[in-house]
Amino acid sequence: MTDHWQIYALKYAERNARTRADSFIMDDDHASPHAMDYYVWLLQSGDRSIVVDTGYDPDEADRRSRPILQNPATMLDRMGVAANAIDTVILTHLHYDHAGGLKSYPNATLHLQAAELAFATGSCMCQDHMRAPFTGEHVCDAVRALYAGRVEFSVGSREIAPGVETHLIGGHSRGLQCVRVRTRRGWVVLASDASHYYENYRHGKPFPLVVDVAEMLTGFRTIRTLAESDDHVIPGHDPLVRRHFPALLAGDDSIVQLHADPLTVVEPDAADTAGALAK
Ligand SMILES: [Zn+2]
Ligand SMILES: [Zn+2]
After folding, report:
1. 75 CA distance to ligand 2 centroid (A)?
2. What is residue 266's predicted lDDT score, i.e. its pLDDT?
3. pLDDT score for 273
4. Tell me, what's the pLDDT at 271?
5. pLDDT value at position 8?
6. Which residue stretches of the chain have pLDDT < 70?
7. In the chain, N or C terminus with fewer CB closer than 10 Å?
């Protein structure tokens, strides 16, 4: 069996009524528009499929008044991947937009950091501010999976399958982890919310939703160290990802191929931001 993986980014939602102040702490330009994409990721090697994060479903979209473009599980279905047949789901963290689709994966073992479930069920959740990005029902889904014997915890770094590793980052959420994947072009790092945008890690700009700023800044270095190059770091919410990588289907950039060589150089330039797309 090969240990080279294909990686697909599936965009299932977007939120464009945002400004740069929502993406960067203390940015000089706080008022310009700054669009956000929402993704899940599919890893495939031979006949093995692993799903990284689950997005959120139409129920959560209604609860938060944040509509989705497509149900992530339906997108997988269109790719020939049945969510209820998936046996491995990696959860980078338990925020609503990453753990909001757990019910679609009743047969999967969930891989998450022990620190994340402890955080999401611990005393910090007494604070409205800390609790806001979590949804109780999603956390309960994770606990139900735990009691059904379907959770494997990591503490730090772990190999999930040959060529697929998770690494604890923290910062944005206490147990946030990134995913490092071996592809034919080298090690790619799915940063998830360790860097929402290219600009966060490239320019050392913390994202405002943060538990520990120092951990977040250290995480910016860690994701770059784990990746083959800057072209191998994939931010978790940046619309530019869909510009830099080729679409799976011509004319539909909602699914792009991260194992393929980038179409364009990912410029380490502040002007190369998602805001440019929103204008
Ligand atoms: Zn998050
Ligand atoms: Zn997120």
Report:
1. 18
2. 75
3. 53
4. 47
5. 98
6. 1-2, 268-279
7. C
Expressed in angstroms and rounded, the spacing between residue 46 Cα and the centre of ligand 1 is 30
Ligand nearest to the backbone CA of 135: 1
DSSP track, 196-222: SSHHHHHTT---SS-S-HHHHHHHHHH
Distance 269 CA to ligand 1 centre (A): 24
Identify which ligand lies nearest to the alpha carbon of 53.
2
Domain range 6-155+234-264, CATH architecture: 4-Layer Sandwich (3.60)
Q: What φ, ψ does residue 233 adopt, rounded to 5°?
A: -95, 125
Q: Which of 54, 197, 179 is nearest to 113 (CA)?
A: 179
Between the CA of 107 and the centroid of ligand 1 the distance, in Å, is 24
CB 186 within 8 A of CB 228: yes
Residue-level pLDDT at 35: 97
How far apart CA 41 and CA 79 sit, in angstroms, is 12
CA of 183 to the centre of ligand 2 (A): 24
Other beta carbons within 10 Å of 33: 15
Give the DSSP H/E element, type plus range, for residue 89: strand 88-90
User: From ligand 2's centre to the CA of 235, what distance in Å?
Assistant: 10
For residue range 142-196, list pLDDT tens digits in order: 999 999 999 999 999 999 999 999 999 999 999 999 999 999 999 999 999 999 9
Angle formed at CA 142 by CA 138 and CA 146, multiple of 5 degrees: 165
Q: How far is the CA of 2 from the centre of ligand 2 (A)?
A: 31
Domain layout of the chain by residue ranges: 6-155+234-264
Residue 135: predicted pLDDT? 98
How far apart (Å, rounded) are the C-alpha atoms in residues 212 and 214?
Answer: 6
Give the angle subtended at the CA of 156 by the CAs of 208 and 197, to the nearest 5°. 30
Q: Tell me the pTM.
A: 0.95
Residues 6+ apart with CB under 8 A from 78: none
Ligand nearest to the CA of 36: 2
